[in-house]
Automatic annotation (TrEMBL):
The keyword Thylakoid does not apply. Residues 288-315 form a coiled coil. SMART domains: GAF. It holds the Pfam family GAF_2. Gene3D superfamilies: 3.30.450.40. This is GAF domain-containing protein. It comes from the Archaea. It comes from Natrinema hispanicum. Keywords: Coiled coil. Residues 326-479 form the GAF domain. SUPFAM superfamilies: GAF domain-like (SSF55781). The lineage of its organism: Archaea, Methanobacteriati, Methanobacteriota, Stenosarchaea group, Halobacteria. The keyword Metal-binding does not apply.
Length: 527
C-alpha cells in the first residue's frame, strides 16, 4: 500500500528542474500536498551541490538533470506518453522513478509517486548501509583472523583456520585443496563440517580443465557455476554456486553454497585477502620447515663427523699399539683396553676357534663381563640363534645385532645377555691371507650403540689386527728356530774343541758366549 504524504513522518523537500508548462504547474500545486518545493531551477547546469544537499528528491523532465544529479538523491523523471525514450536507458542514466505526465496530472497522485520514490530510496539506503556494515564487520573479522592464521605453526592448522573462519564469518562452506606434486593432482586436506552435506565428499581434482584446476594453473579466481558440478563434487551435489581462489603453489580454496538465491561469487573480495594471508602463512611455514630440516640435517652431519673423528682416533691408537706389540697376548690386551675406553663399549673379548673348530674359546676380555662369557657357549655356526661371535667366525663376515631384545626367544644367548644389560653386539672375524685368527666381539649397554662409522672402522681394522697377530706368531716362530740351531751348533763344537789346545778352547768358549748373547738379544727385541 502506498502511503500518502499526510502519513509521512517527514515532509519531502523537492527540487524541480525544467521550464516546461508541466513543471510550472507542478510547482504551483505540489505545495498544497505537503510537499516542500525546495527550489526550482530552469536548467540542469544550475543544480549546485548546495542545492542538492537541501533536497530529498528531484523532479524533472530534463534529461540532462539525470547526469547532473549523479545519484546524489532520488530523481523522478517525467515523460510524455508519446515519448520514444527507452525506460531502461533512463534507469541506467540514474532515474529512480519514471512517471508519465498525463497519468499524474492530479497533484495528489504526483505527491504519492514522490513519496513512494522516497520510501524506496530510503529502503535502498538502509540496505546499502546494512550491506556496508556487514562488509566492514566481515573485513574486521577477517583482519583479526589473518593475525591468527599467520601465527599457526603447521600447514594443516593453516588450512583448517581458513575453512573455519570463512564458515564462521561469511557463512560459506569451503574446502582447501593442496597440490600433490607426486600424483600431479589437487587433494582435499580440510573442509568445513557442512561442506559434505552441501557438495558431497570432496574428491581429488586431476588436471582435467575444470574451473578448480584452471584456477590453480592461472592463479585467477573462478566464479563459474560449474564449480558446483566439477569433479571435486559428486553428481548429486546440492551446491548452487561457488568460487575458487588460488593459494599459489600450495593449492586452491573452493567455496560453495546450496541456497537457491546465493551468490558466493560475490564474496570473492572478502575471501581473497584472507586466502592471500593463508598463502603467505603456508609460504612462511614451508620456509621455516625447510630451515629446520636443513638445521637438523646439519646437526646430524656434525654428529656424524664427531663420531667419525672419534672412530678414526680409536683406530690410530690401536694401529700405533699394534706396531709396538711384542706378543699376541700383549696385542690382544692392548686392543681390548682401547676399545673399552669408548663410552659405547662395555665389554670386548677375543675368541679363538678350538682344536676342532666347532666353537670359540675366550683368549682375553676387558670391560664389564658380569659372568657372560662363562654363561654362554659360542658355536661356530651361521644361524640366527647362534651367538654373534660364532656366526662371524663361520661366515667370516661382521655380524651386528643392534637390539638384543628384538627377538628375545631367538637363541638362549639373548636371555643371558639381557640379564647382564647387554643390548647390542658387534662381532668381526680376524682374517688374514684366508686364515681365521679369531673373532673380536664388542658389546654395548644401549640399543644400536655402535654407529656405522665405528662399525666400518672396526671392520677395516680387523684385517690389520689379523696381520699383526700373524706377524707376531711368525716372529716368535723364527726366534724358536734360531735357539734350536745354536744348541745344535754347541753340541757339534764340544767334541771337536777337546782335541785342540787350551787357547783354542778358550776362544770357542768366547764364541759360545757371543752366540748366547745374540740369541737372548733377539728374543727381547723381536716384534
Amino acid at each position: 500500500m502506498i502511503r500518502s504524504l499526510e502519513d509521512a513522518e517527514t515532509t519531502p523537500e523537492c527540487v524541480l528542474v525544467g521550464t516546461s508548462e508541466w513543471i510550472r504547474t507542478a510547482t504551483a500545486e505540489l505545495a498544497d500536498e505537503a510537499v516542500t518545493v525546495a527550489g526550482v531551477v530552469s536548467a540542469a547546469s544550475d543544480l549546485t551541490d548546495d542545492r542538492l544537499e537541501t533536497a530529498t528528491c528531484v523532479l524533472t523532465d530534463e534529461r540532462a538533470a539525470l547526469a547532473a544529479v549523479d545519484g546524489a538523491c532520488p530523481i523522478v523523471y517525467a515523460i510524455d506518453s508519446t515519448a520514444d525514450e527507452a525506460i531502461d536507458d533512463l534507469r541506467t542514466e540514474g532515474a529512480t522513478e519514471i512517471v508519465v505526465k498525463r497519468s499524474v496530472q492530479k497533484p495528489r497522485l504526483l505527491a504519492q509517486r514522490l513519496q513512494r520514490t522516497l520510501a524506496a530510496a530510503e529502503c535502498e539506503r538502509e540496505r546499502a548501509l546494512t550491506d556496508r556494515h556487514r562488509y566492514r564487520a566481515a573485513l574486521d573479522a577477517l583482519s583479526n583472523a589473518t593475525s591468527h592464521v599467520l601465527a599457526v605453526d603447521s600447514e594443516p592448522a593453516a588450512c583448517e583456520s581458513l575453512v573455519d573462519i570463512v564458515a564462521d564469518v561469511l557463512e560459506i562452506d569451503g574446502v582447501v585443496y593442496r597440490f600433490d606434486d607426486r600424483a600431479t593432482e589437487l587433494r582435499p586436506v580440510a573442509y568445513s563440517a557442512a561442506y559434505e552435506s552441501t557438495a558431497g565428499s570432496p574428491a581429488a581434482v586431476e588436471p582435467n580443465g575444470s574451473s578448480i584446476w584452471e584456477t590453480f594453473i592461472t592463479g585467477e579466481p573462478s566464479t563459474a557455476d560449474d564449480i558446483a558440478t566439477s569433479p571435486a563434487a559428486p553428481a548429486a551435489t546440492a551446491a548452487q554456486s561457488g568460487l575458487a581462489v588460488s593459494l599459489g603453489e600450495h593449492g586452491v580454496f573452493v567455496a560453495v553454497s546450496s541456497a537457491p538465491d546465493a551468490d558466493v561469487s560475490g564474496a570473492v573480495e572478502l575471501v581473497e585477502p584472507f586466502v592471500v594471508a593463508t598463502e603467505a602463512a603456508l609460504d612462511w611455514i614451508g620456509q621455516r620447515q625447510r630451515f629446520h630440516d636443513r638445521e637438523r640435517e646439519l646437526e646430524r652431519h656434525a654428529r656424524r663427523l664427531e663420531r667419525l673423528d672419534a672412530a678414526l682416533e680409536t683406530r690410530r691408537d690401536i694401529e700405533q699399539f699394534l706396531l709396538a706389540a711384542d706378543s699376541r697376548t700383549a696385542l690382544e690386551r692392548g686392543v681390548l683396553a682401547r676399545l673399552t675406553e669408548c663410552d659405547a663399549c662395555s665389554l670386548a673379548w677375543f675368541g679363538e676357534p678350538d682344536a676342532n673348530g666347532n666353537s670359540l674359546e675366550p683368549r682375553a676380555h676387558a670391560g664389564h663381563d658380569r659372568g657372560y662369557l662363562d654363561a654362554v657357549t659360542v658355536p661356530t655356526v651361521d644361524e640366527s640363534t647362534a651367538e654373534p661371535a660364532g656366526r662371524a667366525a663361520r661366515a667370516k663376515a661382521p655380524v651386528y645385532v643392534e637390539n638384543v631384545a628384538a627377538s628375545v626367544h631367538d637363541g638362549a644367548w639373548r636371555g643371558d645377555a639381557l640379564s647382564r644389560n647387554v643390548q647390542c653386539v658387534y662381532a668381526v672375524p680376524l682374517v688374514y691371507d684366508g686364515v681365521l685368527y679369531g673373532v673380536l666381539s664388542i658389546y654395548g649397554d644401549q640399543q644400536d650403540a655402535f654407529d656405522e662409522p665405528f662399525r666400518s672402522m672396526l671392520a677395516d681394522l680387523s684385517g690389520t689386527i689379523a696381520y699383526a697377530i700373524d706377524a707376531v706368531n711368525r716372529t716368535h716362530a723364527l726366534s724358536a728356530t734360531d735357539r734350536t740351531e745354536v744348541a745344535l751348533l754347541q753340541r757339534r763344537i764340544a767334541p771337536v774343541s777337546a782335541l785342540f789346545s787350551a787357547d783354542f778352547r778358550e776362544a770357542c768358549g768366547e764364541l759360545d758366549a757371543v752366540c748366547r748373547y745374540e740369541v737372548e738379544k733377539t728374543d727381547h727385541t723381536a716384534v
